[in-house]
């Protein structure tokens, strides 16, 4: 037929498989790579009751106990690593040098923004972790922090909260006495920062 873009979206969202498909994608992106049938069914039920209202689905998911209890199960992509670092540390991104240091690292990690290898996008998950990828992440973290002014107000607890989501870092003894850029660098290369 003569369908417009809105027609395609309406037809696809009305398909019986859509609530579970979208629920799985949302779950894998925000909670963990392995939703149980019950967890998937809960999201599908919200989809069906709300007519596919993503705001209601995300509100239910992000306020659930499961979301908080499974924290740290999603591996941060290279782009999430870079953007999360910039945002958490309030780094200025106006200069060309910033982009010249980050884009090659993202390309080396196989995550060039807006340029996946094929139409399915990036595989994600464990594919982001390898010995070479960890070394490149360390280099990118060094470029973002070492020799820079870190503009996170407060102290080590605030920096830990901004980067790791907790004031109580297991690395406190190692980080005490270091400069803010050194602390930020060590937190950003920790396994805890690599997980969402």
Provide tags for this entry.
196 residues; mainly alpha; 0% strand
Protein topology:
Layout: H1 5-14, H2 18-30, H3 37-50, H4 54-62, H5 65-69, H6 78-89, H7 96-108, H8 131-145, H9 156-164, H10 172-175, H11 180-188
Helix pairs in contact: 2-3, 3-4, 6-8, 7-8, 8-11, 9-11
Mean pLDDT: 86
Distance between the termini: 43 Å
* Count of β-strands: 0
Largest sheet: none
Tally of helical runs: 11
Shape: globular
Which percent band covers the strand fraction? Answer: under 5%
Radius of gyration: 20 Å
User: Which class do the helix and strand fractions yield?
Assistant: mainly alpha
Taken in chain order, the helices and strands follow as: HHHHHHHHHHH
Helix content: 55-70%
Low-confidence stretches: none
Give a concise summary.
This protein is mainly alpha-helical. The chain is 58% helix and 0% strand.
Kindly describe this structure.
This protein has 196 residues and is mostly helical. It is 58% helix and 0% strand. It has eleven helices and no strands. The protein has helices spanning 5-14, 18-30, 37-50, 54-62, 65-69, 78-89, 96-108, 131-145, 156-164, 172-175, 180-188. Helix 2 packs across helix 3. The model has no long low-confidence stretch (mean pLDDT 86).
């Amino acid at each position: 037929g003569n369908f417009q873009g809105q027609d395609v979206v309406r037809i696809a969202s009305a398909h019986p498989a859509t609530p579970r498909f979208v629920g799985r994608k949302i779950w894998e992106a925000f909670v963990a790579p392995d939703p149980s049938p019950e967890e998937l069914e809960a999201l599908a039920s919200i989809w069906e009751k709300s007519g596919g209202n993503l705001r209601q689905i995300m509100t239910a998911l992000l306020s659930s106990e499961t979301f908080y209890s499974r924290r740290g199960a999603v591996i941060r992509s290279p782009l999430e690593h870079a953007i999360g670092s910039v945002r958490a540390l309030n780094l200025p991104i106006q200069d060309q040098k910033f982009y010249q240091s980050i884009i090659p690292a993202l390309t080396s990690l196989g995550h060039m923004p807006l340029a996946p290898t094929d139409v399915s996008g990036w595989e994600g998950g464990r594919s982001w972790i390898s010995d070479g990828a960890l070394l490149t992440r360390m280099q990118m973290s060094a470029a973002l922090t070492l020799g820079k002014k870190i503009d996170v107000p407060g102290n080590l607890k605030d920096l830990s909260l901004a980067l790791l989501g907790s004031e109580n870092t297991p690395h406190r003894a190692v980080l005490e006495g270091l400069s803010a850029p050194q602390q930020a660098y060590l937190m950003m290369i920790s396994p805890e920062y690599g997980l969402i």
